[in-house]
Every structure is written in C-alpha cells, then in structure tokens.
Specification:
Elements lengths: L1 H28 L1 H11 L6 E5 L11 H9 L4 E8 L5 E3 L20 H5 L5 H6 L16 H8 L4 E6 L8 H11 L6 E5 L2 H10 L5 E5 L10 H8 L4 E4 L6 H9 L3 E2 L7 H10 L3 E4 L2 H14 L3
Parallel strand pairs: 1-2, 1-9, 2-4, 4-5, 5-6, 6-7, 7-8
Antiparallel strand pairs: 2-3
Bound molecules: SN-glycerol-3-phosphate and calcium ion.
The site of calcium ion has 3 residues, from strand 2.
Length: about 300
C-alpha cells in the first residue's frame, strides 16, 4: 500500500516538474506569454486606452468618423459626451451649445433632433486642422446615442459622460434605456462631474460601473479617506485631470480599492508617466500614441 502511494507521488511530482519547466521556458522566451501571465496574476495591469470623444485628435470629436477611427486604431473604449435634445433624445456632443463644433448656433436643449440633424459637425474640424482634414468629415452629423450603439454594438467598449451642467431631468433613465435596448450592459461605463447624477444612475442600474470625474487645481498628493469612502459608495473609480495628480495620489486611491483613469493625456512623455504610476486607463485624443507607449513599456518590462 505504502509502495503504491510512493509510486503515485513520484509520478505526480515528475508531471508537476515537467509542467512548471514548460511554463518557465515559455515565460522566459515568449513576451506574449509573459504579458499574459502578468495579466492573469495582476488583472489590474490592463491599462485601458480610452479614445476621448473618439480619436478626436484626428477627426471631428464625438462623431461617427471619430469613433470609427478609434476602433480602427484598436482603442479599448470610446468616450462619448451626452446631452438631451429639446424633444428628449440623448445626443452626442460635448458643449451645451452647437456653436463650436457645427455650422449652427444655439443650445442643444433648445433644439429638436430634427433641427440638430441638419447641422454639419465636421467642416469646422477640416478648417481648424487641415493636416488631418478628410472629405468624409464634411457634412457628418451629430449622432444620437442610439446611432452610436447601433453602429458599433459590442465591437468596442463605451464610457458615456452625463454632462454636468444641470443634467437634464431624466437623462439617466434615457441613457439606461438605450443601454438595455442594445443589450450593452457589459460593455458600458458612465462618468460625470455630477455626483448627484451618478448617484441617480446607481439607483436606476447598480450593475453599470461608474467613475467620478474630478478636477484638481494643484497636484493632489493625498485625499481624505472620508471623501474616497463616499465615492466608493456608488462608483468603482475616479477620473481626475492628469495635471492634478501624482504617483502618491494614484497609489492611495488604488490602495483604497478604487480605479484611477486620468484625462486628457496627449503627450507620450505624460502617458509614460501615467503608465508608470499604475493607472487603470488613460483618456487621450490620440489613441495610437498611447497604444505605442503601452506596447513599449510591455516590451521593455523585465519580469
Ligand atoms: O475624459 C474626461 C473628460 O471627458 C472630462 O472632460 O470636458 O473632455 O468632457 P471633457
Ligand atoms: Ca467628456
């Protein structure tokens, strides 16, 4: 009996040893496997590339072409700003007015969808950035949230921003209805500067991850635990302005169990810094630049 047991243990031991040796060889000689092993051991190591208003450094912000380009560049997430029209339709535009990014004038909340859809949301970009101008941008329109969901489905992830300036009544419910309609619950997150709006959304649908957008005037080193506790009661993370944070801030917030995803980082030097601080994602107008920084860091990593 004892002999059989010893034989079995010996046999198992040999197999474990062979398996561990194989893993060690793969780990040592394959960078892809190294990255995978690191991801399995530390899932937080995934740094999301978030295309801020789409690939808005290269295409008119918050338009279908800007989102298409972000998807082509292999960004993980597109960030989308949402306002409500006069007739209560969630549309994708950053400012309260259409003045800066279209050929029209007026407040989004005072215009119907039909009025908004007549506007050209791309020509301003071609004129402002001739080096990135493309014929197809001229005449592109302000999309509805539904149009974006319809176009991209689960092809990409989304972070929707409920704009903070007096969130329209009911915007949270309408956004949630669109998410349900397209069955996108597992690929959508929401952020907002308005804690009130986020709390409201959390009550409507506690399954959607929320991020509190914040702005710091000076480099934040440490923040109060009461403040972090309050945020943690409804959100999974904080999205601060990159210029307002430090490595100590990132470490504190992450140790508290919240994610950190700074905005808006467009220079590779700063992307590199954010990466080395261990952030969970970075908002950028130039997703290709960030993906390059992430790749370089991973290639150079010594495990
Ligand atoms: O990504 C965070 C950012 O979207 C918040 O600022 O003005 O670009 O909407 P803003
Ligand atoms: Ca935004």
């Amino acid at each position: 009996m004892m002999k059989v047991f010893r034989h079995k243990a010996y046999f198992t031991g040999i197999h474990v040893l062979l398996f561990v040796s194989l893993l060690t060889i793969l780990y040592a000689y394959s960078p892809t496997i190294r990255v995978k092993v690191k991801e399995i051991m530390d899932p937080a190591d995934k740094v999301y590339t978030i295309a801020h208003r789409g690939a808005s450094g290269y295409a008119p912000e918050n338009t279908i072409p800007a989102f298409e380009l972000a998807a082509e560049m292999k960004a993980d997430i597109i960030e989308i700003d949402i306002h409500l029209t006069k007739d209560g339709i969630p549309v994708v535009i950053h400012d309260d007015t259409v003045n800066r990014t279209t050929n029209g004038k007026g407040y989004v909340k005072n215009m119907t969808l039909e009025q908004l859809e007549r506007l050209d949301a791309g020509t301003w970009f071609n004129e402002a950035y001739p080096m990135f101008a493309r014929d197809k941008y001229a005449g592109t329109t302000i999309p509805t949230l539904d149009q974006v969901f319809e176009t991209f489905g689960k092809e990409i992830k989304y972070i929707l921003e409920i704009k903070d300036s007096a969130p329209s009544p009911g915007i949270e419910t309408l956004i949630n209805e669109s998410i349900q309609k397209y069955d996108l619950e597992d690929v959508v997150a929401i952020h907002s500067f308005s804690a009130g709006s986020l709390r409201k959304f959390h009550k409507i649908n506690p399954d959607i991850p929320l991020y509190q957008l914040v702005w710091y005037d000076y480099n934040a080193e440490r923040v109060s635990e009461t403040y972090l506790k309050e945020i943690k009661s409804y959100a999974v993370g904080i999205s601060p302005n990159f210029q307002g944070i430090s490595s100590a801030y990132v470490a504190q917030v992450k140790n508290f169990g919240l994610k950190v995803m700074p905005y808006t980082v467009n220079y590779q030097l700063n992307m590199d810094k954010a990466y080395s601080w261990g952030v969970d994602g970075v908002y950028t107008n130039f997703p290709d630049r960030l993906l390059e920084v992430i790749d370089t860091n991973r290639d150079n990593a010594q495990w």
